[in-house]
Design goal:
This protein has 287 residues and is of the alpha+beta class. 43% of the residues lie in helices and 16% in strands.
């Protein structure tokens, strides 16, 4: 998107003028920029979405997180099919030693925001993959198997990233799902949905903030499965979380199960290099 088009969107959606624009690296789903407006304030914008409804659905997810008033979320200033305009959150150059504990406590507050049904009011995206969120009142197990695991497996088949042995192992996992996931009666918790370390910010005052969500209501252990997949969350984080909101027995074993959704998503986004990790995770669950 050229500068003139960005200026037009800023006038229409944020009633402000563009002074400077600086590309921000790190994103693979859209182009990102830090901008300075006519009055000297800073904003963060995204352009060039991969799907026309991507930014509007992300904005509604951010608003859902923000409405819970539990953890710092960038305010949505304006959005349409071409651009997402957000509050700019200045970050600390060094994270304080208390940050991981503060992050764990903040995630507890988020997960204590609940709903009557698993899912969300609409489908959205996890990365560049459509995420199905059809509301399911009665069963987290069914929601996870149908809308998370099976959905990604079928997508891998369409993308020709499937593997016969992996598919057979997934079917074995599905047949023993009642043993793997207990009926613990926990309500659907508000989840960020894509909680890896790159979507966590440490603000200048040491406060945690979350960005780039794939929001829905699910079992809170699903979120922790993602945190254990790619690193960036240490024992202080888990200790603070568990102290405020104790986790159920064998939750660490189930994080392997829940990480499969994200591993299959990475397979579908980035290719067959993730097959070995998926295979190893499935074998651990079956042993």
């Amino acid at each position: 998107m050229n500068r003139q088009r960005i200026e037009d969107h800023l006038r229409t959606l944020a009633d402000t003028e563009l002074r400077t624009i600086t590309p921000v690296s790190g994103g693979s789903i859209a182009a990102a920029y830090q901008i300075t407006t006519g009055d000297g304030s800073r904003l963060f914008i995204k352009t060039a979405p991969q799907f026309p409804d991507m930014f509007e659905r992300e904005a509604r997810g951010l608003k859902e997180l923000s409405a819970a008033n539990t953890v710092r979320i960038p305010e949505v200033i304006g959005v349409n099919e071409e651009i997402l305009i957000l509050e700019f959150l200045p970050t600390a150059s060094v994270r304080p030693t208390t940050f991981q504990s503060a992050l764990g406590a903040a995630l507890v507050r988020l997960h204590r925001a609940t709903a009557a049904e698993f899912g969300f009011t609409e489908d959205n995206y996890i990365g560049a993959t459509p995420q199905v969120n059809r509301p399911q009142r009665s069963s987290w197990k069914e929601f996870f198997v149908v809308q998370r695991l099976e959905y990604q497996v079928r997508l891998a088949e369409r993308n020709r990233y499937d593997d016969r042995e992996i598919t057979a192992l997934v079917h074995r996992i599905e047949r023993m799902i009642d043993r793997l996931i207990p009926d613990d009666g926990e309500p659907p918790a508000l989840l960020h949905g894509d909680l890896w370390s790159g979507n966590v910010l440490c603000l200048e005052d040491g406060t945690p903030a979350l960005i780039d969500p794939a929001v829905y209501y699910g079992h809170r252990e699903m979120e922790l499965g993602m945190t254990r997949l790619f690193g960036g969350f240490d024992e202080r984080f888990y200790a603070a979380y568990n102290e405020s909101y104790p986790l159920n027995d064998e939750w660490e074993r189930r994080t392997d199960l829940y990480s499969l959704y994200h591993l299959f998503n990475h397979l579908n986004l980035f290719g067959k290099s993730y097959q070995a990790q998926i295979y190893d995770t499935l074998k651990r669950l079956l042993n």
